[in-house]
Structures are given as C-alpha cells and as structure tokens.
Design goal:
By secondary structure, the chain is α/β, with parallel strands linked by helices. It contains twelve helices and eight strands. Its EC number is 5.3.1.1.
C-alpha cells in the first residue's frame, strides 16, 4: 500500500507577519514535487491569507492550527472552517494536545470540528497522543484508541480514508526527547488498527498517519522508513526555512 508522505510544520504561536512572509518567500519553489511528498505549513490564523497568497501555485500547502465547529455566528475570537476554506486552505490541524490541555478541548469538540471541517471541503489533521504518565503506565494503546474512536464518531468510510491523523506523544513534544522510531511505528500501528476495527482494511490502508514529537532533519528519514508512519508533524524544526526544507530531504 503506498500512501503519499505528508510533512507538516506546526508553527504554533510563533512568528510575526513579516517573519511569516519572509519564510514563505524563502521556501517558495524549493519543496520537492507533490508527487513525492505533500508539504504543509501550519500557521497562526492571522497569517493564513498572506501565506496562501504568496504560496499560490506552489506545491507547499498552508494549514490552519484550529477552527471552530460552526460556520458563522456569535463566537467571539473564533475562526470558522468556512472562512478558512474560502482562503484556499487545504488542511486544519485539530485536537493538538496543547489545545486539549490549555483550551480544554474535548474529544466531542474535536469530533464536531472534524465534521464541520470536512463539510467545508478541508482535510482535518486530527491529533492524538498520551501523557508521560499514561505512557509509563503502559496505557498508550488504550488511550490512543479511545481518542481516535471518539474523534471519528459518525464519519463515513470515505471521509476517514481521506483524513490525516497525527500521533504525538505529549512527552515528546518540544522536549527533544522523541519517541524512538519503533515506538512511533508501533503506536501509529495502533491508530491504524483502530481505524481498521471501525472502518475495515481498505480505509485503514488509505488513512495517513503522522508521527510528531521532536522530529528534526536528522531523524525524519528513520521515522519515514517505518511501515505505519506516513509523515511528520513538526514544531520547533519547522520554524526556520532551512530546517523546514531539510525535513523533506528524505525523499531523495
Ligand atoms: O507538537 C508538535 C507538532 O504539532 C511537535 O513539536 P516539536 O516538533 O517542537 O516537538
């Protein structure tokens, strides 16, 4: 089964407008062919429009880092999936552990967001992952299975086939302490088996699963060599243009 690799940067709450634009100008025209790998920049909402404009026609896609689950209304401070879709944005990251922890997002919210995003023709990148405590208690598989089952509730097989899921162990995010490639492969395998149990093998063979947590140019190829790892969701190492582009070198 060959799934197209997908490398996505997640800038989190970093950069000014000038820095975001300079980054886009620096990477424009430099990513490998979209036949080999999909390349995505996850930007704060403020910079989505200028990034989409600079990268219009380039192989690099832009992703939002969040969206609300309503298309309009009295929801001060939120951004709708409809408005994000209207900018030509292809992906929206949802359920990141930082959103779950600091902004109290629940599995139910994430499921509603997934549905609203898909209804607007955008692909969600749905994050899951366990705390250090859960990992050390040997409960990772049950935890991730439960998060994924809740996030996918009521989605159709076709919708799930087109999704991207990111497995990000919380203990490996921004810590420099990455899960080793076999552990990442094993838990991405748990995600795939969960999808298979819910939707069957055709769907689980199609869904793309990223690993995230201290991925760098030096270790990305090892993750990408694993059966169940189809991509990476990268924080720190996606912030500088040179390092971001170096994450794509594994295709050569
Ligand atoms: O949370 C992450 C990406 O969403 C991972 O962040 P780091 O790559 O900085 O560990």
């Amino acid at each position: 089964m060959s799934r197209k690799p997908i490398i996505a940067g997640n800038w989190k709450m970093n950069k000014t407008l000038a820095e975001a634009k300079a980054f886009a100008e620096a990477v424009k025209g430099k990513a490998p062919s979209a036949d080999l790998v999909e390349t995505v920049i996850g930007s704060p909402a403020l910079f989505l429009a200028p990034l989409a404009e600079i990268l219009n026609g380039d192989v690099i896609e832009v992703a939002a880092q969040n969206a609300y689950f309503e298309n309009a209304g009295a929801f001060t401070g939120e951004n709708s999936p409809a408005a994000i879709a209207d900018l030509g944005i292809k992906y929206i990251i949802i359920g990141h552990s930082e959103r779950r922890e600091y902004f109290h997002e629940t599995d139910e919210d994430i499921n509603k967001k997934a549905k609203a995003i898909i209804a607007n023709g955008v692909t969600p990148i749905i994050c899951c992952g366990e705390t250090l405590e859960t990992y050390e208690a040997g409960q990772t598989a049950q935890w991730v299975e439960s998060q994924i089952t809740a996030a996918l509730k009521d989605l159709t097989p076709e919708q799930v086939s087109n999704l991207v899921i990111a497995y990000e162990p919380i203990w490996a995010i921004g810590t420099g302490k990455s899960a080793d490639a076999n552990t990442a492969d094993e838990t991405c395998g748990v995600v795939r088996n969960t999808v298979e149990k819910l939707y069957g093998k055709t769907v689980s063979d199609a869904v793309r699963i990223q690993y995230g947590g201290s991925v760098k140019p030096e270790n990305v190829a090892e993750y990408m060599s694993k059966e169940n790892v189809d991509g990476a969701l990268v924080g720190g190492a996606s912030l500088e243009a040179e390092s971001f582009l170096a994450l794509l070198d594994f295709v050569n």
